[in-house]
Amino acid sequence: MNEPVVYLALAAYPALVIFVFDWWNAGWASKNRSFFLPPELKKKREEACRPLALVRYALLLLVLRGLAGSGLWYMVPIAKHLREFFFFAGFGVAGGLLMLAFRQALSVLSPGAASAEDNEYFLRGSPVLWLAIFLIGAIAEEFWRAVCIISFEENGYSRVLPILLTAFAFSLAHLCGLPSRIGPGIVSLLLEATVGLMLGGLFIWSGNLVTPSVASGVYFIWSFFLVRKRFGHLDESQKTTVLAEP
Known about the structure:
By secondary structure, the chain is mostly helical. The chain has 11 helices and no strands. The chain has helices spanning 3-21, 23-32, 39-49, 52-68, 82-109, 111-118, 127-154, 160-175, 186-206, 210-231, 236-243.
């Protein structure tokens, strides 16, 4: 992909969330001069929009296919043999656990990081649907990240720039939309960008899509169950308080 197309691919993920799936929320925010929906309205929007996350990933791959052409599926190195797959998957599991340990350490050291986790919206919705979102999202997101990193390198950029840019776009996409994958605020955005940096680093280090995809799945699935375990005993009114915007 040439340079302008690479930037379009980079912007595709957050743009899909903001302009395709978050248009109603943006209209409400403009009309009411607030980005924070009332709790009951927010709950209804979350329930209606949650399954659309799977559609979002499918559209992301279609946009990448339209930008890169038929050669898209050959751009990213993927393990082709079972032994090779398990080799890279093992590194992915280790990477996901290290990412989780790093995030937990930050939560212990920083009250802001700890409160950012409390604002996640994983308490509502079917666990099966959330698991599907995490697993399919791990593949689609890391494929998008890998395509962007490889394309930037092919246009003469160092590896640092695409890792930084994809991490920012990744965190912005997770912040926008309903349900949001992270809580509101700069701290949540920076923490999610840090996750994106580590996933990008895993792809560069391993040279294979399997490692960051597995790491992403391990990290987000484990985080999901930690949040459910921490707040699963609350009733609906208490969940609304925990999940309320500050």
